Amino acid sequence: MRVFYLILGIVAAFCLILYFFVADADSGQDSLAETRIPSLHPENHGLRSENRPLIFATEGDVIPFNGKKPDGSLYGFEIELVHALCADMRKNCQIIDHNWEGMIVGLKENKFDAIISQIMVTPERLESINFTDSYYASKIVIFGHKGKAASKIEDIKEKIVGAQLGTVNAKYIEDNHPDWHERLFDSQTAMYADFISGRLDYIITEQNAVKYGIKDQTKLVTVGPAIILGSTSIGVNKSNHELLESLNRSLANIRKSGEYDKIFQRYFGNN
């Protein structure tokens, strides 16, 4: 009889231990559920997350504003400007290269926080995105081959003129010179190559950009005065008012401190 009660006691003790073990396991699962990483939904991983760098998109093909080194790293006036702004805002930032034509669309779709790539402010663009205060005054000019080019814009007739796709330069041709044979390019580099080879009679581009894009300036001539003068600014999504204010504040700060002038002079001298 004693043996029976002994066995019964052992079984009861085993069941009690098993009960507490299962209870602890369930409690652990509840605790794990509370600390589980959120699922990969846009609302949990949106661009406004505090735990990620601000993402700036640039083209990486408009030297000296933005270019790409052989190792793939970005450099240029606008690249250094972003670094100075982010340092003033005390924010970590990442600059990525992106094709020009899809840049504004990408900004509207929240693929990045801001875009900086020689973007001139226009009424049409202001309908889609916001712009910071200006950081550069663009001067768009028509260039031709020395010894062959017309001396005045109105004398250019039935010629092949190159411009980059989706720019104010291309729109200028469409709006003002339907008789010109417009050639549109995905990049500045491709446009310069066709001009140097003689496949283009004229090109429309920014006055400082062409100095870097075409090395032999002796074969280049300006036709007439600048055709477009405008403000170049950083584009920001219309819903991100906080970033717009921060960028404007930091832009004013680096101008006041002299940091902006140092960066500007490295690329454009005292121009």
What structural class should be given to the helix and strand makeup?
A: alpha/beta
The percent of residues in helical segments reads 40-55%
Radius of gyration: 30 Å
> What's the number of extended β-strand segments?
12
Termini distance?
108 Å
* Spatial ordering of strands, largest sheet: 4-1-5-12-6
CATH architecture of the largest domain: 3-Layer(aba) Sandwich
CATH topology of the largest domain: D-Maltodextrin-Binding Protein, domain 2
**What is the fourth-level CATH superfamily of the largest domain?**
Periplasmic binding protein-like II
Count of domain modules: 2
Mean pLDDT, all residues? 85
Shape: globular
User: Helical stretch count?
Assistant: 9
N-to-C SSE string, H for helix and E for strand: HEEEHEHEHEEEHEHEHEEHH
* Biggest pleated-sheet summary: 5 strands, mixed
Unreliably modeled segments: 1-8, 11-47
The level-1 CATH class of the largest domain: Alpha Beta
How large a portion of the residues is in β-strands, by DSSP E? 15-25%
